[in-house]
Structure of NUDIX hydrolase:
Amino acid sequence: MSEERWRPSVTVAAVICDGGAPARYLLVEEQTPEGLKLNNPAGHLEPGESPEQGVVREALEETARVFSPTALLGVYLARFQRPGHEGAAEEDITYVRFAYSGTVGDELPGRTLDSGIVRTLWMTLAEVRESAARHRSPLVLQCVADHAAGRGYTVRVVSTHPSVRQPRAGGASL
């Protein structure tokens, strides 16, 4: 029997808190096939990068701010199912999300937000909870709530072997 091997999508997410009272979290509002949704600054891990490098890159692309990870909030698993429509095939994707908390600087002048990102916004935990119906994933609230509860591990708990950065077979660079 030849079944296709299960391949979850690996993503990274930045949970950014301003440290105020009340604390506010930096989210992005983005265009998706399901409409305008809220998300943590997040995206797919790219070949040749560690999860920590990936989250720094994604946060910069989506917020125009330099992100400095200070803790790993956790590794999360979630499934997304999108019914097929208008000739598009049904999607059934399991995501493995490495979520990091950390700090950001000010927006970088002249830096544009990634394609599909409409804007960034700061929201309190209560506002994040109240907007759950607009979240791109149930992990948005879970990651923010875990941060608010004080969850976090040293970033060194995730190790990336040097082989990840080696050229692919046939000499193609990453």
Q: What stands out?
A: The radius of gyration is 17 Å. The domain at 9-82+90-162 is CATH 3.90.79.10 (Nucleoside Triphosphate Pyrophosphohydrolase).
